[in-house]
Amino acid sequence: MGGTEGFVADLLGRMTLQEKIGQLGLFAAGEGPATGQAGGPALGELIAAGQVGSVFGTKSFDTVARFQEIALKESRLGIPLLFAEDVIHGHRTLFPLPIGLASSFDMALVEETAEAAAAEAAAEGIHQAYAPMLDLCRDARWGRVAESPGEDPWLAARYAEAMVRGFQGPDLRAPGRLAACLKHFVGYGAPMGGRDYDAASIAPHELFDAYAEPFRAGVAAGAVSVMAGFHALNGVPMHAHRALIEGWLRGVCGLEGVVVADYTAIRELQAHGIGGRDAVTVQALLAGVDLDMISGDYLACLPRLAETGIADAESGTAASAQEIVAAIEAAAGRVLALKHRLGLFDDPYRGATRAGAAAAPLRPETRALARRAASASAVLLENAGALPLAESGQTIALIGPLADDRSNMLGTWAVSGDPQAAVTIREGLAASANTVLCAKGCNLVEDPAVVDRLNFVPGTVSPDPRAEAEMIAEAVEMAARADVVVAVIGEAKEHSGEAGSRAELDIPAPQRRLFAALRETGKPLVAVVLAGRPLMLGDVAAAADATVLAWFAGTEMGNGLADLLYGRAEPTARLAVSLPAHPGQVPFHHGASETGRPWPGEWRKFTTGYLDLPGEQHPARGLYPFGYGLAYTRFALGAPVVERAMLAGPEESVAVRVPVENTGARAGTAVVQLYVTDPVARIQRPAQELKGIARLTLAPGAAGEAAFTLTRDDLAYSLPRPDGSVERVWDPGRFILRAGLNARDTASVEVDWRP
Ligand code: NOJ
């Protein structure tokens, strides 16, 4: 036995049971936001007593060094601490929100941002990122869609791989790398009613083919940790879900790393109603949750339970003392193995120094990447010719509460970012030979109770004391003096993110009134929407001459957006999530299966839709489909062509080619998407599944071909067995291959795939 295994076995052999339990303790440094109950004995004392394995939320190298020195010098065995942080979409330099990064449809770019974020965080002594967040979300009410790669399992799986590669690189020990932590396992993005933390009910085939797929891909890409979700899935709180954590994640997917609890979530198992403190602590441990974030219940209860065992009839929790000791040993072994794989026993700082930490943040090359990512994540929804804007000789009236705002640009979960380092949209547009006039026009929201909740992160919204009529009048007067009006409207950054659920999916009311007044001026009107979720944008897009959904794009938002609006960058982003027509239709997604009475039906009323949601739109497909986004040029796509329409045998793959032509007057990038429909199978299959993306940059008038290879594995799905488990199968026969520039407008070809 050598390497990590031998090292860990030797170390475990020298540790007391209490020290092993100590390795499972994960506490906050106290420098970040407390999103739940915190407190307890001073962290330094606990570390010295060997009762802490990991610390998260440090905000400087000095804090890391202070705690690490205590662990190394004052604890009996001097085992180094593991430092973690929420490096969600950047660290000091913020990149666009994950929903924006996923909307770039550019996984090389996603990987670059993760690598840059890892370098900034590792330079400060951080070892593990609590990212990527991989919760598929089909319900725009759920605020954490901001942190998610959107609605589609294939895209989310590619995003997972890119993020893991970007964080961990080929060698986890190398300087500048971080351990990735896939979260929140699993189905956390499907809470009832879109309410954060609420329970999810997901059928087995959907669970494994959709919600779990990005986790499978992330583990296969080498991710060394996973965080469990706060929620209950199909009646079992995830922190006690032994079948999915021990059984599927470790047993089937082969996760070799640690499973981290979310914030006080082990203690919260009591509120879920599955037992008292002792019972839930044992359930979490046996489920395979290694690190107890904040609750301290592993520390408090396990030493005793390891002597007594537990037999609790009410909750059905039964474990012998030996079983508990073995589970503690296994969990501590995994924590120590991760520390060893990261190289912490050779260098607990992994090369980080005070000087290095001071030089790492906000380097010009990282900012340049953030600028590129900001323009690459903004989706052009409509353009009647108002964009791109001329770079000189124009007077632009830049109006809206977010037009010259610094505090919101970074977006939610930017815990180490400095809003003061952010470039505002006014600053970005003003760096041109244009005249940029700027006014707020109205307040972002009007309800003081909402203002108060948004200001959980201080300064998110600062209400202007002026009357709204006065602010609108100022904006309208400015618009009258301008050649073009750019209205920057949307949500505050804290409208989305954790506990950022909304019942309405509209632009807040004061901004709708402002927008209507600007439309009245008759000036060319460009709407730039900032949001952390797929908002209902039909009215805005119908009234504006061009509409851009820019999400929150990070430190370089102003510059990146200016690049896009001025046409220095081409719009290449495509929606990673469908935009709803109405909040009443969520949840939905582009792959939702058809019903027995599909819309539009022959029977006037008896069809799958809404009586009060009129229009030509499919009622369950949204207003703007997944994969949608315009360029400044136009593309014509031919139907997909297959090399053979008849295939036989399990080894087969088929080459699919899609002719593309740039029919516009500018160069641009076509983002061609390949979807597959399995029209007849043993169970009802999704209406379509994304299976590939091809990006083609073409000069005006140029033609090319998007090339895809579809394998038999792409046709496989999870067939539920009677016991609730699933088997991976495929059903030979007809398959429809659809190619398009979005999930709705596709042309197809059929193949017959024989057994
Ligand atoms: C709670 C969030 O759910 C999780 O994503 C985050 O990593 C932890 N808090 C730590 O901040």
The geometry reads as globular
Mean pLDDT: 96
Low-confidence stretches: none
The helix fraction, in percent, is 25-40%
Q: Numbering strands along the chain, what is their spatial order in the largest sheet?
A: 13-18-17-16-14-15
Which small compounds were modeled alongside the protein?
1-deoxynojirimycin
- Structural class estimated from helices and strands: alpha/beta
| Count of runs of 4 or more consecutive helical residues | 22
Strand content: 15-25%
How many whole angstroms does the radius of gyration measure?
26 Å
N→C terminal distance: 45 Å
Number of strands: 29
> Can you summarize the main beta sheet?
6 strands, mixed
Would you kindly provide a written description of the structure presented here, covering whatever features stand out?
- The longest helix has 22 residues, at 321-342.
- This protein is α/β, with parallel strands linked by helices and 755 residues long.
- The protein is built from 22 helices and 29 strands.
- A six-stranded mixed β-sheet has the order 13-18-17-16-14-15. A five-stranded parallel β-sheet has the order 4-3-2-1-10, covered by helices on one side.
- The chain is 30% helix and 19% strand.
- The structure holds 1-deoxynojirimycin (NOJ).
